[in-house]
Amino acid sequence: MAAPRSPLSRLFTVLLAGVLAGLVLAVAALPGNLLLGLTARSALGSYAALPASLKTPATPQRSYLYANDGKTLITTFYDVNRTDVPLSEIAPVMRQAIVAAEDRRFYDHGGADLRGLARALVANVKGGGTEQGGSTLTMQYVRNVLKTDPTRTAEERAAATDPTVGRKIQEIRYASALDKSLGKDEILDRYLNIAYFGSGAYGIAAASQRYFGKPPAQLTLGESALLAGLVQSPDAYSPISGDKDEAVARRSYVLDSMVATNAITAAQAAQAKAEPLALHPTAQPNGCTAVSQGHDDWGYFCDYLRQWWLTQPAFGATVAEREQALRSGGYTVVTSLDPKIQATAQQQATKVYSYDNKRALPIAAVQPGTGRVLAMAVNRHYSLADNPAGQANYPNTVNPLISGGASVDGYQAGSTFKLFTMLAALESGRTLSTGFDAPAKLPTRYPAEGPGSCDGHWCPANANPDWMDGYRMMWDGFGRSVNTYFVWLAEQVGQDKVVQMAQRLGITFRADSDAAFAKNNAANWGSFTLGVAATTPLDLANAYATVAAEGTYCTPVPVVSVTGADGTKVPVGQPSCKRVLDVDVARAATDAARCPVGQQSAFGQCNGGTATGVNDILDGRPVAGKTGSSEQNSTETFVGFTPQVAVAGIAANPDDPADSVGSAVQTKVIDAVARVIATAVKGQPQKAFVAPSHELAGDAHRPVQRPTVPNREKDPTDENPRSALQRWLDRRG
């Protein structure tokens, strides 16, 4: 690539002129055909001896991230803004323009144009005018490959542009070898995909998008001439960051050259010269903080994908190699992000809390049976922008508030953890009919002091005694979220079994104190069933998705497919699933989880729920779920699921766990999560949950009609739940 020459470059020209002086004199007198033969013989190039990068270029290319439709661009990653395209996808006038601008004899010489080089040397030695380079497109291609080859050292890349006679002669030899082994179109294609066009655009695809916002196949004559003119001095001629007048003048030069090569007529050139400089600059997003305008909420999913990518050996042996692969490997990544579900989740998160509210509602949606993450939303901008004074993480942050990690341990999810106690109990052989006369307060064996203790022992209480106390089974214990029932049940099963169940379903203890308790003292973690351990919406949604998938746990994954720059599918992103629950156990837990959301179990045992409005939002579609309120309502949680999707949302203050969000927000959280589920299943066939076996239903496996009790209200027709059950047993004989 030609460029304004430095004093050192001029010295190099004089030296090369001296070395090749005899050749210059001889060349002037030789006929064209003989000259071409001399070129081929004197270059002494061997294709086999070429560096591997010249045979198979390792040019860095940007990677693209798309939503699950394969069309909606999320962002790109790159160190060098480049995307290779085949010659067939480059406008013919662009191919003609670059030849006319940089190497008119491209189709006539053997890779190194000795006649052109001699003419340039003579002109430069004489001086008195613009210096000429004499490098062919093939020689420029060689130089560009060697100076950008990521497999070479920094010193080797720098040597590719050294102003020495030896380097120039090597460049001529390499160009000659390439010309003998590759067709002219192949060389032209490679050149157009590596040349620098200024303003950060490498290759014709990036340049066409950068300057005109279109693919290179759609370039007009005037646009092609402008771009072809840039490669001689990309920064100086750039109409975006350089001199527009110089860019226009250079365009005219290229058009005149195209007339000289008979590529176009003089009339066509005149018409193109008269066209105004109609630029449409388009900046290519780079990284998660540069996602599409108006969609900065996608940044949280993007960051989650990037963290996942850095753990995949398919992209390199080390984290650094995987990062480099993402930024230069030219991958096409179709992610699992569903734009419609994401849009609803973001709308609902910001409906509950505004962007500048210190409290947050992170929401995650997961597909049961695959683990694919469908949405990650929160009322924050994914941005490195400064926040107003006194505001730590709002409205802007890049912390993983939805997935956890880094400085985010998660949030208490309250009674949603009762699911793990129920599963452990069912797995141990207990049935859904397991009954207990749940008191308002339950003295336990765990030592405790303070307001929550009874005679020196931890003494959990029910939040609404009138509605919760009395004889309960798993169905109504779960539906009404009866604390004392589930603490009692966990004691029967063993707290360590409950903790292990949570871990089996993917709950990760990111807080050091939680991890230590789980490892060293799980058997005495009495309050675990009440959701005192920190978790995240993503972990929670995926745990419930495991139940929705009838006991199949799938590792969360953010991609559908990854394709390399050469079109080869990379073997990553396929669902990684395993059975962690017996099918019947999962079905039994789902049957009880119908109670909280205002639906009925297969055995007619639901008699009240804490989120009955969900049934109305889903129009009666089979759904299950659970609410969770942590102590003093510091957080409010709801997780719901159908066979097709599981969604969790946790209202919390990420910066201050002591800031209670209050019970009033619970209905809003329930509504938000339910509406995300509604969007996810819209248009999908309605799927019913499969009822559990009579064995796991237990004594209540025969259907019984019970009045449905409104949300958190006492059933006026059932003053004594225990006596009502006794009457039912009497009727059974």
UniProtKB/TrEMBL annotation:
Chain intervals with Basic and acidic residues compositional bias? 711-721
User: Transmembrane region positions?
Assistant: none
Q: Which SUPFAM superfamilies match?
A: beta-lactamase/transpeptidase-like, Lysozyme-like
UniProt cross-references to Gene3D superfamilies, sorted A to Z: Biosynthetic peptidoglycan transglycosylase-like (1.10.3810.10), DD-peptidase/beta-lactamase superfamily (3.40.710.10)
Question: Which keywords annotate this record?
Answer: Carboxypeptidase, Glycosyltransferase, Hydrolase, Multifunctional enzyme, Protease, Transferase
Domain Glycosyl transferase family, chain residue ranges per copy = 73-258
UniProt-listed Pfam families = Transgly (PF00912), Transpeptidase (PF00905)
> From the record, what ranges are coiled-coil?
none
Where does the source fall among the domains of life?
Bacteria
The Penicillin-binding protein transpeptidase domain extends over 364-670
Write down the chemical reaction(s) this protein catalyses.
Preferential cleavage: (Ac)2-L-Lys-D-Ala-|-D-Ala. Also transpeptidation of peptidyl-alanyl moieties that are N-acyl substituents of D-alanine; [GlcNAc-(1->4)-Mur2Ac(oyl-L-Ala-gamma-D-Glu-L-Lys-D-Ala-D-Ala)](n)-di-trans,octa-cis-undecaprenyl diphosphate + beta-D-GlcNAc-(1->4)-Mur2Ac(oyl-L-Ala-gamma-D-Glu-L-Lys-D-Ala-D-Ala)-di-trans,octa-cis-undecaprenyl diphosphate = [GlcNAc-(1->4)-Mur2Ac(oyl-L-Ala-gamma-D-Glu-L-Lys-D-Ala-D-Ala)](n+1)-di-trans,octa-cis-undecaprenyl diphosphate + di-trans,octa-cis-undecaprenyl diphosphate + H(+)
Q: Which InterPro entries match?
A: Beta-lactam/transpept-like, Glyco_trans_51, Glycosyltr_51/Transpeptidase, Lysozyme-like_dom_sf, PBP_transglycosylase, PCN-bd_Tpept
Which stretches does the entry tag as region Disordered?
Answer: 690-733
Q: What is this protein called?
A: Transglycosylase domain-containing protein
The species is: Micromonospora trifolii
